[in-house]
Design a protein that fits this description.
The strands form nine sheets. Strands 13, 14, 15, 16, 18, 19, 20 and 25 form an eight-stranded mixed sheet that branches. Strands 11, 12, 21, 22, 29 and 30 form a six-stranded mixed sheet that branches. This protein is globular. Helix 1 (about 40-50) crosses helix 9 (about 340-355), helix 6 crosses helix 7 and helix 7 packs parallel to helix 11. The termini are far apart. It contains 13 helices and 31 strands.
Length: about 625
C-alpha cells in the first residue's frame, strides 16, 4: 500500500538506548490515532485573531460546540480512518472527537503503520518504540497527524514531587521573612542570616500581591486544574487547611472532580493538594474543576485532561503543573512524542478560540537538566514552551511582618551545608545549585509576535539567528524555602487512617496555580468576561506598573540574600542545616535581570494587574 510517513514520529531517545531487538509479535497492543480535524490552519488563524488586542475579533469567542463543528474532526474523517484501520485487521473504536483507539498484535500494528516495533532497556525498564517512522496511507495523510502508544517510554511528570529529596522542618522557621535570626550560625555575606519562613499563609500571599482590599474573590470565574492523579482526601484536606488558616471552605458544588475509570489515586499527593489550595487561596469564590487524565484516549494523561476541559468548555482559566520533558529536536532529556505536541498545540489553539486562558509550569531545574551548566544539558519544558500557553516561572519572595511585599528575586538558589564544627559553611559561598525555575529559548518554536518588542535579542536569538520563543512569560513565588503552607493527609505508618499535616512547599507547581487564581480575579474584574489566551494582553502590560520587575539583586547591586533551613534526610530522618543563597545562580544557565528575563519573564503581578488584564 502506498504509505506516507508521519514526520517526527520516530523517538530520538532510541538512538542512545540499549536495543533488545524486535518486540514479540504475540499479545494485544494498543495505539491511538490522533486526528487533525477539518481545518488546522484555520483554527490557528482564528486563535490568533481572537487573542490579538488590535484585532476587531479580539475576545469574541466561540462556544465549545461551535469550535468542534467548525474545526473538529468531521464524520467523514472518522469513517475514513476507522474503515482503514479495520481493513488492516485492527479493532478500531472512536474514543473522542480527536482520536481513534486501535488494538491488534504487534505484526498487525507494524503492517498497518509501516514500521517495526522494537524493545529497548531504559533505566532498568523494558520499553517499546517504533524503530522507524510511522506511516499511514496517502489518502489519510490530511486526516491523521500522529500515532501514540507505540512509544511506551515517556510519561508526564509533576514539577514539585521530589520523592527522595530532603525536606525542611518546622522547628526553627519564621512566620515572616527575617523574623528569626539564626545567631548561632556562621554569618553569610557579612550578615547574620535568618531562618526560612514556615510557609506563607493565603492571607500573606494575597496581601503581598496586592489582592487585599480589591474586593476580588474570583466569584463567577471557573478554574480547571489538570492532574495525572488525585488523593482521595483532596477536598477534606483543602477544607481542613482553610479552617486552620481562617479561610472559607469549599461550598457544596464548588469543586467538581472529573475522574475517569482507572484514574490513579494516591493518599498523600501533595502536588494536587498544593494546586487546589493555591487556587482557592487566591480566588476563594471561583468554581474549580479537578480533571485527571488516564492517557487512555490520546496516549497521554495531560492531553486527555486538557482536551476534556477544552471540548466541554469547563473553565475560563486552566492550570497544570505537569510537563512532558524537553521539546522534540532540543537537547537534554528525551523529547516529547511529536504527535503529542501536535495534538496539544491544536487543543491549546481551540482553548484560545473558546476563551480559555491556559497556564503551565516552567520547571524546577533551572536552565539545565541537573542544574549544572558544566555537565548538564539545556532544559526546556513543554507545554510551557508552547507559544500558545502562558509559561509561569518562579520567584523567591520576602513578605514582611505586616504581610507587606518586601522584595522578590528570581528563584535560582545555591546551597551550602553547615560544616561539621558548626563554625563555617562547608562549601565556599554561594555553594552549589540547589533548585530553580525553568526557562530558556526554544529550538523549535519561532518567536511569537507578542514577544517581538519585549524580549531582548540576546535572549531570543543567542546565536544571532532567527528569534525563537522564550519562556517564561510571568512568574510568582515558587522557591521551596519561601513557599506556601500546604495541608495534606499522609498514609499512617501503623496502617491507621491518613493523618493530616502541613508543611511548606513550592516549585513552579505553586507559582502556576497562583497565577491561574489571579487570572480568575481578572475575569471577575472584567464582569465575568473571559480573557482567552492571555499572552498578547500580558505583554501589552509591560511597563504599565502591572508587574514587579524581578531582578537578581533586590536589595542592591552588591547585596546577596540568603536564609538558613533545617533539613531532614528522607530515609534516615537525620537533620542537618543548609544555607540557601537566593537569586541568580551561576549554574542555572538563565538570566535574571531588569526587564524581561528567562527566570521570571515579565515579572510578578502587582495590585494593578487584575483590572489591567481585564482591560478595565
Amino acid at each position: 500500500m502506498n504509505q506516507r510517513a508521519l514526520v517526527g514520529n520516530t523517538p530520538l531517545w532510541t538512538e542512545s538506548a540499549e536495543h533488545l531487538g524486535h518486540a514479540d509479535s504475540g499479545g494485544t497492543l494498543k495505539a491511538n490515532i490522533l486526528l487533525a480535524g477539518q481545518d488546522p490552519a484555520g483554527l490557528a488563524r482564528h486563535a490568533q485573531k481572537v487573542s490579538d488586542p488590535h484585532s476587531p475579533s479580539y475576545r469574541h469567542f466561540l462556544t465549545a460546540q461551535q469550535a468542534l463543528d467548525r474545526y473538529g474532526t468531521s464524520h467523514a474523517q472518522l469513517e475514513r480512518v476507522t474503515a482503514w484501520a479495520r481493513a488492516a485487521g485492527l479493532k478500531a473504536t472512536v474514543s473522542g472527537p480527536h482520536s481513534i483507539s486501535v488494538r491488534g498484535d504487534t505484526s498487525r500494528l507494524e503492517a498497518a503503520f509501516g514500521t517495526r516495533i522494537d524493545e529497548y532497556r531504559v533505566d532498568g525498564r523494558t520499553v517499546r518504540a517504533p524503530a522507524r517512522s510511522v506511516s499511514v496511507p496517502h489518502s489519510l495523510a490530511g486526516d491523521v497527524f500522529g500515532v501514540t502508544g507505540l512509544d511506551t517510554k515517556q510519561p508526564a511528570h509533576p514539577m514539585s514531587v521530589h520523592k527522595n529529596a530532603p525536606s525542611t522542618t518546622d522547628s526553627k522557621c519564621s512566620s515572616f521573612y527575617g523574623e528569626k535570626p539564626a545567631a548561632n550560625l556562621p554569618k553569610a555575606y557579612g550578615r547574620t542570616v535568618s531562618w526560612e519562613p514556615c510557609g506563607y499563609t493565603p492571607a500573606q500571599i494575597r496581601s503581598a500581591y496586592g489582592i487585599k482590599g480589591t474586593g476580588l474573590t474570583g466569584k463567577g470565574a471557573k478554574v480547571a486544574i489538570l492532574a495525572s492523579l488525585v488523593s482521595p482526601t483532596l477536598l477534606a484536606d483543602a477544607n481542613t487547611y482553610a479552617a486552620q488558616h481562617g479561610e472559607q471552605p469549599f461550598a457544596p458544588g464548588q469543586l467538581t472532580m472529573r475522574l475517569p475509570p482507572g484514574a490513579p489515586q494516591i493518599v498523600g499527593d501533595d502536588e494536587g493538594a498544593m494546586d487546589l489550595e493555591a487556587v482557592h487561596a487566591i480566588a476563594p469564590d471561583a468554581a474549580v474543576t479537578f480533571d485527571v487524565g488516564t492517557g487512555d484516549v490520546t496516549g497521554n494523561a495531560v492531553l486527555d485532561a486538557l482536551t476534556d476541559v477544552v471540548d466541554h468548555r469547563l473553565a475560563d482559566v486552566l492550570t497544570s503543573s505537569y510537563v512532558e520533558g524537553v521539546l522534540p529536536g532540543g537537547q537534554g532529556e528525551d523529547p516529547v512524542d511529536p504527535a503529542i505536541v501536535k495534538a496539544t498545540e491544536q487543543s491549546l489553539q481551540q482553548a484560545a478560540v473558546e476563551g480559555i486562558s491556559t497556564n503551565f509550569s516552567s520547571g524546577d531545574s533551572g536552565g539545565f537538566n541537573g542544574g549544572d551548566a558544566s555537565h548538564g544539558t539545556p532544559q526546556l519544558e513543554y507545554p510551557g514552551s508552547s507559544p500558545w500557553t502562558t509559561a509561569v516561572g518562579g520567584t523567591s519572595l520576602a513578605i514582611g511582618a505586616k504581610n507587606e511585599y518586601e522584595w522578590e528575586t528570581g528563584w535560582e538558589s545555591d546551597a551550602s551545608n553547615l560544616a561539621a564544627d558548626g563554625k563555617s559553611w562547608a562549601q565556599p559561598l554561594p555553594g552549589t545549585f540547589s533548585a530553580g525555575a525553568g526557562g530558556g529559548v526554544s529550538t523549535v518554536f519561532p518567536q511569537p509576535a507578542y514577544q517581538r518588542n519585549a524580549v531582548p535579542a540576546s535572549l531570543s536569538s543567542p546565536d544571532g539567528k532567527k528569534p525563537m520563543r522564550t519562556m517564561p512569560d510571568v512568574a510568582a513565588v515558587g522557591d521551596f524555602h519561601t513557599g506556601i503552607r500546604v495541608g495534606v493527609s499522609h498514609p499512617s505508618a501503623t496502617g491507621q487512617k491518613p493523618q493530616y499535616r502541613e508543611q511548606s512547599d513550592g516549585g513552579t507547581s505553586l507559582s502556576c496555580p497562583l497565577i491561574a487564581g489571579m487570572e480568575a480575579l481578572a475575569v471577575q474584574a472584567g464582569g465575568g468576561a473571559s480573557l482567552g489566551f492571555a499572552n498578547p494582553a500580558l505583554y501589552a502590560l509591560q511597563g504599565t506598573g502591572a508587574y514587579h520587575d524581578v531582578t537578581d539583586h533586590p536589595s542592591g547591586a552588591h547585596e546577596k540574600e540568603s536564609l538558613a533551613a533545617e533539613m531532614v534526610k528522607p530515609r534516615t530522618q537525620e537533620k542537618y542545616t543548609q544555607l540557601f543563597t537566593l537569586g541568580q545562580s551561576a549554574d542555572s544557565g538563565l538570566v535574571s535581570a531588569a526587564g524581561y528575563d528567562t527566570v521570571t519573564g515579565l515579572g510578578s503581578p502587582t495590585g494593578k494587574f487584575f483590572k489591567a488584564l481585564a482591560g478595565k
